[in-house]
Write a structure and sequence with these properties.
Order of helices and strands: EHEHHHEEEEHEHHHHEHEEEHHEHEEEHH
Strand content: 15-25%
CATH class of the largest domain: Alpha Beta
Helix content: 25-40%
Number of strands: 15
Oligomer: single chain
Distance between the termini: 54 Å
Number of helices: 15
CATH topology of the largest domain: Alkaline Phosphatase, subunit A
Structural class: alpha/beta
CATH architecture of the largest domain: 3-Layer(aba) Sandwich
Number of domains: 2
Radius of gyration: 22 Å
Largest sheet: 9 strands, mixed
């Protein structure tokens, strides 16, 4: 078999909830639907953690979070772990990555290690940029968060830098539809709820810490109303549809160049978002399915069957093993250390795993950010470590403080009815499976270290407080 090109496209913070190919009633993803019709949709694809860093590290290393060690308390990919890009470089692939997200970079988090070329495409401020209520981020209220520029830059790479004598491995991360969502027209108006004005839509809360801390302005109890959530979800739909339109431009470009059919195209997400769950927002401090159940659409004529749906479990950490399997790369050391399994058998309708596993490190990163807002809030409930396993119809969430959860997803897909009190035997069985599986893996814990960005405004006095209470093992001051 001629070695295919490989393109992994990450729709940052894209849940399955509002995608047409996953049964959503609104036409938010018409271009992705075309790819789905020509390829395979995975109904039960799960990431290994609830946010950017652990998911991307699992994608590139083929390891669970316990294996690569990166997450909410240690925000770097350790150099000892081989990555997909490194191996494909050795195999003669031209490796190139594009990212809107500074969490996915070579310099700041080491996640992009191994790519021969890496292009950071920062989110533009735009002519109407304003500082949002959360001082961590610049809110682009103009039109685009990077997708249009990214697609233009990708096309320029094909025009000027691609070596047609080599297959390519391309990675793209587009920050849409990450909060804050404010898509360009006509997408915003297309999905905005009837009777809701642009002014009302712009005023809806998109500050995750305001919802988590119960400080949403102009709300009696400090939390968003059902109408607020409905407006926000409609804005999310517009953002998803906008990114889909940009992706359609890329797909058409690749078709016109006769590249698409020679490419294994993988469309997925690093996590979803917690919308309409009181006291939650964003993508930290939880492992509900809104976060970890993410889309996966795969296309490659002659390899992946057309118009098929696969209902078995697959995970984001499975791609390293899959690519090695597909290319028949016998890299024994790498293979022996992978946690993921090849999903290639699923293209023949065969299952590859009977469970999914996800993890969340103690949330020192969101705690530090919240302390900037509310110096006196009790952060201890935010420091829980979480392990989650889904097997069959049940999903079990282990918390280090003992507040475990058990859900029957066949009858309670929204994870609202905790069965831990009535189904203790099932919970105990899943807990044992988590322990057994993790004990069989080589695990890594690199301690506590946060990256320091000027735009993130890390408060080192806050970190000193956390260090004094034992939340951090040591205080690292980047100015020293």
């Amino acid at each position: 078999m001629t070695r295919p090109n490989i393109l992994i496209f990450i729709m940052d913070t894209q849940p399955v909830r509002n995608m047409t190919c996953y049964g959503y009633s609104k036409n938010t993803t018409q271009n992705i639907q075309k790819i789905a019709d020509e390829g395979m949709v995975y109904a039960n694809h799960y990431v290994t953690g609830g946010w950017t860093v652990p998911s991307h590290c699992s994608l590139f290393t083929g390891k669970y979070q316990s294996g690569h060690g990166a997450g909410a308390q240690y925000e770097f990919l350790d150099r000892r772990f081989p990555t997909i890009a490194q191996v494909l470089n050795e195999q003669g692939y031209q490796t190139i990555g594009f990212s809107n997200n500074s969490w996915v970079s070579q310099d700041e988090t080491n996640i992009a290690r191994g790519f021969a070329r890496w292009v950071m495409i920062p989110r533009p401020k735009g002519r109407n940029a304003q500082i949002g209520p959360e001082d961590d981020f610049i809110v682009d209220t103009n039109l685009d968060s990077g997708a249009a520029t990214t697609m233009d830059t990708v096309q320029q790479w094909f025009d000027h830098e691609r070596d047609a004598r080599q297959p390519f491995f391309m990675f793209i991360n587009c920050i849409e539809p990450h909060l804050r969502v404010w898509s360009p027209e006509p997408y915003r108006a297309q999905f905005l709820l009837p009777g809701v004005t642009q002014k009302q839509a712009r005023a809806v809360n998109q500050d995750e810490f305001a919802e988590r801390l119960g400080t949403v302005p102009d709300r009696a109890d400090g939390h968003m109303t059902q109408n607020d959530w409905n407006i926000l979800k409609s804005l999310y739909d517009g953002e998803t549809a906008y990114l889909d339109s940009r992706m359609g431009i890329l797909f058409d470009f690749l078709r016109a160049r006769n590249i698409l059919d020679d490419t294994l195209l993988i469309i997925t997400s690093d996590h979803g978002d917690l919308l309409e769950r009181r006291g939650f927002m964003g993508h930290h401090l939880a492992l509900f399915d809104e976060l970890i159940h993410t889309p996966l659409i795969v296309r490659k004529p002659g390899l992946v069957p057309q118009g098929k749906r696969f209902d078995g479990y697959v995970q984001i950490c499975d791609w390293f093993a899959t690519i090695l399997d597909l290319l028949d790369i016998k890299h024994e050391k790498v293979l022996s250390e992978l946690h993921g399994v090849s999903i290639a058998p699923t293209w023949r309708g065969e299952p590859t795993r009977d469970f999914i596993l996800a993890e969340y490190q103690k949330g020192v990163q969101p705690v530090e950010r919240a302390l900037r807002r509310a110096p006196d809030f009790d952060y201890r409930p935010w420091l829980r470590r979480i392990k989650a396993m889904r097997a069959g119809q049940y999903k079990y969430l282990w918390f280090n403080d003992g507040a475990d959860l058990l859900f029957d997803l066949a009858n309670d897909p929204g994870e609202r009815n905790n069965l831990i009190g009535t189904h203790a035997d099932i919970a105990a069985d899943l807990r044992k499976k988590i322990e057994t599986h993790l004990l069989a893996l080589k695990r890594n814990d690199f301690g506590d270290k946060m990256r320091n960005h000027g735009f993130r405004n890390v408060r080192w006095d806050n970190i000193a407080r956390l260090s004094a209470m034992g939340v951090y093992r040591e205080l690292t001051d980047p100015t020293e």
